[in-house]
Amino acid sequence: MRYAPGNAPGGGGGRSATGTGRGKWWPLVAITLGNFMLLVDVTIVNTALPRIADGLGASFTSLQWVMDGYALALAALLMVAGSAADLYGRRRLYVAGLAVFALASLACGLAPGAELLVAARVVQGIGAAAMFATNTPLLMAAYQGRDRGVAFGVWGGTSGAAAAVGPVLGGMLTEWTDWRTIFLVNLPLTAVAVWLTLRYVGESYGDLGARIDWPGAASFTVCAGALTYGLMRGGEHGWTETGTLAALAVAVLALLVFAVAERRAAHPLLDLRLLRRPSFAVLMAAALLMQAAAFPYLTFVGLWAQDILGLSPIGAGLAVTPLALMSLLVGVLGGRALQRMAPQLPLGIGLLLIGAGSLLHVVLLGSGASWPALVPGLAVSGLGVGAAMPVLVSAALGAAPPQRAGMASGAVNTFRQLGFAFGIAVLGTVFGTALRDSGARAGGRDALAAGYLSGLREITLISGLVALATGLLVLAVVRRAPGSDGGRPGAADGADAGPADARPRAQAPAGA
Questions:
Q1: What is the C-alpha to C-alpha distance for residues 151 and 191, in angstroms, rounded to an integer?
Q2: Using CA atoms, how far apart are residues 320 and 49, in angstroms rounded to an integer?
Q3: How far apart are CA 300 and CA 220, in angstroms?
């Protein structure tokens, strides 16, 4: 790791992050603020979707893209953003990401139509990828020893809180002001984060010999985008429709190009040899499928709560908070104990609890159900999220060789965000089909309510079965690699990594 002159931790400039006094925590404030914003924006839109649909005349598919455009851009560019930060400077890329995020937030808040809102959300996700990829390495460069542990504790805690705050904050802003405020509120916050970063955060770099894998980045982005588009289009226009088949064919072709590019690249985004390790391959699948099972269906629960139950945006946000609150509680009270366990235990059992919670919705969301019927399932799922999420990155590190620690943590976060994007696409397709079928059978509000409940039961059934199957697979397959660090704290900072992969990546906060 190299540093800009005068900005190494403990070095000159008079603003050392590892010095004494209150000023040493300003880098943590700057980095945590940006991280909190980008994670809140994953879910803050949930409770505003009905108002967005009314205000812009947005279709159901457009609402899916409002959610997915952000998550997809974040996932597709996360690994390449980490490589760019290592080469061009992590602080520089973080500030650039904040600027892009702010400008895109302004565009979201001023969007006159659904198409421009979706486009702005994609750009917002690009900025978020730059911010997310640089969080961990900036903190690693800014703090040492005990201060580093404190910094990561605060950073992880606020990351988990973002999941709980997002829907409620979105509901408050939507109900008390206007849905556009959920984006415009980012402007003053990013201004503060930029000022603090430029004033207090030192510049640092990664491996001098690394290069950006542009062919891998391009093919991966095309594959993820085409697959998501194909899944949504298939649900709306049919799976044999020309546009659907073309999108899915492009996704397959791009995946093949990505595989070839990664095998030939001197500095690949993802060393495909890691996937030959059964534990690592299953953990990547678990990252994708857990995120797809645990969170995307909450978007459609929020629509039901407002469109059918008549809850306010704030009420809809509060209705889904038991999951995030239970997750946060488990992380706070049991975080250290979970990290000491064999990783397959909290991860596998957590997935089984997520599955059980989802299946409780299938049972309890019967005819005439209201929001209290959500609480048992959300609470059980929250226990599972709290147990599984904090262990996921350390489990991936334990399944990979130490010199691939940065790549492993970057990959697991990428697969997590892809899981959210794919989950919105797949579950949205199932939910939309249920609504159309109910409308075909009969008209009126009763038919619409029945369609919503039918759709919710179907998507929670799918989520539950996926989580249960993934949990059993994790328990059966995942083991630490011989001689691995087992995911010790600090292992992802690249300290033990060789020149092939001295690239710290963003860690996975609980509940994000």
A1: 22
A2: 15
A3: 28
Cα separation, 174 vs 188, in Å, equals 18
Q: Is residue 2 within a helix (H) or strand (E), and if so which, with residue range?
A: strand 2-3
Helix, strand, coil distribution of the chain in percent, nearest 5: 80, 0, 20
CA 293 vs. chain centroid, Å, equals 13
Q: List, for residues 18-40, the tens digit of each pLDDT value.
A: 444 557 889 999 999 998 999 89
Q: Where are the alpha helices (DSSP H) in 177-213?
A: 181-184, 186-200
Place of tokens 């390790």: 277
**If you ran DSSP here, which 8-state letter would residue 20 be given?**
S
Task: Extract the tokens encoding 10.
Answer: 């403990």
Q: What is the pLDDT of residue 436?
A: 79
C-beta of residue 47 within 8 angstroms of C-beta of residue 302: yes
> What is the sign, positive or negative, of the torsion defined by CA atoms of 496, 498, 499, 503?
negative
Q: What stretch of H or E contains 285?
A: helix 278-294
Beta partners for residue 2, in sequence order:
205
Cα(75)–Cα(496) distance, integer angstroms: 26
Neighbours of 10 (CB within 10 A): 10
Instruction: Please state, in angstroms and rounded to a whole number, the distance separating the CA atoms of residues 333 and 215.
Output: 44
From the list 140, 113, 105, 188, the residue with the least C-alpha distance to 27 is 140
Please tell me the distance from the alpha carbon of residue 96 to that of residue 109, in angstroms, as a whole number: 20
Cβ neighbors of 14 (< 8 A, separation 6 or more) are none
Model confidence at 477: pLDDT above 60: yes
Torsion angle defined by CA atoms of residues 380, 381, 382 and 383, in that order, rounded to the nearest 10 degrees: 60
DSSP state of 267: S
Coil/strand/helix, residue 79? helix
**Mean pLDDT for the stretch of residues 254-277:** 91
Residues β-bridged to residue 205? 2
Query: φ and ψ at 508, to 5 degrees?
Result: -100, 110
- Token pair belonging to 369: 């159900």
Mean pLDDT of the chain: 84
- Kindly report the CA angle at 224 between 222 and 225, in degrees rounded to 5? 65
At 161 the three-state DSSP class reads: helix
Whether residue 95 contacts residue 33, with contact meaning beta carbons closer than 8 Å, is answered with no
Q: What's the CA angle centered on 211, arms 270 and 262, to 5 degrees?
A: 30
Residue range 105-127: mean pLDDT, rounded = 96
Average pLDDT on 74-91 reads 88
Residue 227's φ and ψ, nearest 5 degrees, are: -65, -45
Sequence-distant (6+) residues with CB within 8 A of 488 are 394
pLDDT surpassing 50 at residue 232: yes
- For the CA atoms of the chain, what is the radius of gyration? 22
